[in-house]
Amino acid sequence: MRGAFLRRPRYTSCVSSAPSQLKRVLVTGATGYIGGRLVPRLLEAGYRVRCLVREPRKLTDRHWADDKRVEIVRGDADDVAGLTDAMRGCGAAYFLIHSMEAVGPAYRERDRELAENFARAASNAEIERIIYLGGLGETGEGLSEHLTSRREVEEALASGLAPVTVLRAAMIIGSGSASFEILRYLVERLPIMVTPKWVKTECQPIAVRNVLHYLVACLNCDETVGRTLDIGGPEVMRYRDIMQVMASELGLRKRIIVPVPVLTPRLSSMWIHLVTPLSHRIARPLAEGLRNRVVCRNDDASQLMPQDLFTIREAIAAALGRIQRREVETAWSAAGPIPGDPDWAGGKTFVDERTIEIDAPASCVYRAVCRIGGGQGYYAADWLWRLRGWMDQFVGGPGLRRGRRDPENVSFGEALDFWRVTGIERDRSLQLRAEMKLPGEALLAFRIEPIDGERDRCRLIQTARFKPRGLVGLAYWYAVVPLHAIVFNGMLDGIRRTAEETAQSNDVTA
């Protein structure tokens, strides 16, 4: 079905030339899915960008982080004074912060509080306007809790002196987005789907590149100041039909979809958790939101900021192409705070340390270490890792299905299956913190050391640490210790073989 807009009088499109005054803009959420893609687009448009982030190390490997027009500031949306300082000298500020794990009443209050802080700081810093990417949905009663929270954020942002531009989007189709990953995994893994009745609900998805265009173009469009604009692609389609388009683009047979009325959002989110990489805490607000019809009320945005809008099929094909070419810019799994290392002092901490010498330079060893997880696996006893992943997912953990953004390269803060990268130093070390469900805290670290006098040989030290919680934690450690010889020795040997093969290949091609 082609776009079903309610037509309003035509607007004159905004001039798409570079801004007359290249002011600095503030971007929050630059480590997240949209923010991480927005910054380079702003730079391409000629703006200077200040990124406010809790953990600057998460931006270290971004190709744009060293650009002279980019300023990275450590800060937190809880700190109004710090926010005010970060906004000073900026013409506009993007609010791209929201709770990923939106479960329970506390998250709505939390998001509203952060938005109020942002509005207060924008008033103090005399920001010209705030730009917010919210959720599309029918106005009035009946909104899901997730979309209701987005409306509350809009109101909180508007409580200050700075005018707010709100762009409301439905499903964003792009490689690495949470909604796209749900769609892809469900279609890929389930030829027959028993689904909630919301698969009959109409939706107007939009390609991520079209979202980014609107976010940048509105800066140079005065007609968008203080406006709420619905943004969507050119088609309105039921979710079940979108699933069939995905199946077609994946080269799969048409899916058999059986809608039933008894599946609640809670049951739906648990099912999504078992089949896709997303946890039930993230899946639930998305599942709840799917019951609302999310269709643009008019085409004001496309009239003011014209562009070529991708159809649903084109957007899915583009996203799948980026995944196949290993060009995923950002992923939902990298968003969120990075917990600090556990306090290893006090109480019992178990340490399992193993060492191997490798006939390869540190760069080859580091590259082999960074390949663990995802489709590559763990070099040995992959069936044990898969079993552990299934067990973890069954009790509500992420399991192995989060995979990784890129098959070889990793960055600080990224997810590798049920691990999180909490330390990284090129050619020297990699540290992973376990995010699986555990009765304790666990780290897995790799350290590469040179061997004196030997340029093309090095030593790899692998250290597993576990700090148990109570008797259950102690029992867990003693239960898995017998498997360490299989898992960890096999992993080290696999890293050695891969690193030495890489070194030999480099010698041949040199």
Mind describing the biggest β-sheet? 7 strands, parallel
N- to C-terminal distance: 56 Å
Strand content: 15-25%
- At CATH level 2, the architecture of the largest domain is 3-Layer(aba) Sandwich
Shape: globular
Structural class: alpha/beta
Low-confidence stretches: 1-11, 16-21
How many domains?
2
Question: Please, what is the average pLDDT?
Answer: 84
Percent of residues in helices: 25-40%
CATH fold field value of the largest domain: Rossmann fold
CA-based gyration radius? 24 Å
The beta-strand count equals 19
Task: Tell me the name of the CATH homologous superfamily of the largest domain.
Answer: NAD(P)-binding Rossmann-like Domain
Assigned CATH class of the largest domain: Alpha Beta
Q: How many helices does DSSP assign?
A: 14
Give the strand order, joined by hyphens, for the main sheet: 3-2-1-4-5-6-11
